[in-house]
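=== RUN LOG ===
request id: a7f3
mode: sequence -> structure
chains: 1
length: 120
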Amino acid sequence: MKNYITLQESIQEDIKNVGIFMAIVTVIISFQGVLASDPYYFFDVLAAGLMAYFAYFKASLKAVYFALAYYIFDSVLYIDIYADSLVAMVVRIAILYWLAKTAFNGYRATNNPELTVQSG
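=== RESULT ===
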């Protein structure tokens, strides 16, 4: 027997996963800020921490949109660093794909609340 749930219900877990990921990114950025002794990393930590909070605890789709925009902006700024390492580029592309897929599914779920997906 196949069970179906709405796309809106299924996307909630994906949004929480983005929140967990952004929490990990927040910790990594804070370590980078301490090691580099750069006070401007505080703004990155604050932005990533807010995205993590709103994505995990509030299940906010806007936090996913901001996380996607943040990662695109970060990828463009540091393209010269990622271009030297194929592994870094592949990981960055995979993360961007995952964030874009989650954002697009959330957009579809918001605009079409009656859409269903197979659960399990």
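=== NOTES ===
The beta strands are 4-6, 116-118.
The chain has a mean pLDDT of 86.
=== END ===
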